[in-house]
Design goal:
Layout lengths: L15 H18 L4 H10 L8 E2 L1 E5 H8 L6 E8 L2 E10 L2 E9 L4 E7 L2 E6 L5 E8 L2 E8 L5 E2 L3 E2 L1
Parallel strand pairs: 1-10
Antiparallel strand pairs: 2-3, 3-4, 4-5, 5-8, 6-7, 6-9, 9-10, 9-11
């Protein structure tokens, strides 16, 4: 084997463990001597909210639970919600199905769109049909929000709500 200079010397074996120790020591020195400013960390966290800057926050304009509470009726099996964002309107019916919920929705004006339901354990995704309708089964009980993105246009995000 030839050496690094092209001569006939032997190439020393590489020690990965020594490299890891050196990197660990350098990281410790950098942390101790030049820590990241706490303001910079907070700015970095806040910048993540800009990922959805194109999506408008939809306003909850109607909630059948609010009406049911006002007139003291049960109404826990079905909940009707209406969200508005600009010229778009999203009507959602939340149906109780044991330990989960079923969401039946309609986007107006009718158009193709992607609907993503975000919940604490992940997401569920569905596309609307040509009439703007969609169905999401197996929605967990808890906090959820909907992100609706019509084809070729800016979308919106609903506020978090409890299903």
């Amino acid at each position: 084997m030839t050496g690094p200079d092209g001569g006939g010397g032997r190439v020393p074996e590489h020690d990965d463990a020594a490299d890891e120790r050196l990197l660990h020591d350098l990281a410790r020195v950098a942390r101790d001597r030049d820590p990241v400013p706490t303001d910079l960390l907070e700015f970095a966290r806040q910048s993540l909210t800009w990922r959805t800057v194109d999506a408008e926050l939809a306003e909850l304009t109607a909630d059948s639970h609010e009406v049911a509470r006002a007139v003291r009726t049960a109404g826990d099996d079905v909940r009707l919600l209406t969200f508005s964002a600009g010229d778009l309107r999203l009507d959602v019916e939340v149906l109780a199905e044991g330990a989960t919920r079923r969401l039946v929705g309609e986007l107006s004006p009718a158009q193709p769109a992607r609907v993503v339901l975000e919940h604490t354990d992940g997401t569920l995704t569905e596309d609307t049909d040509e009439l703007g309708r969609f169905l999401l089964d197996g929605v967990p009980v808890g906090l959820v929000r909907l992100r609706c993105t019509p084809e070729g246009g800016p979308g919106f995000i609903t506020p978090w709500l409890h299903t």
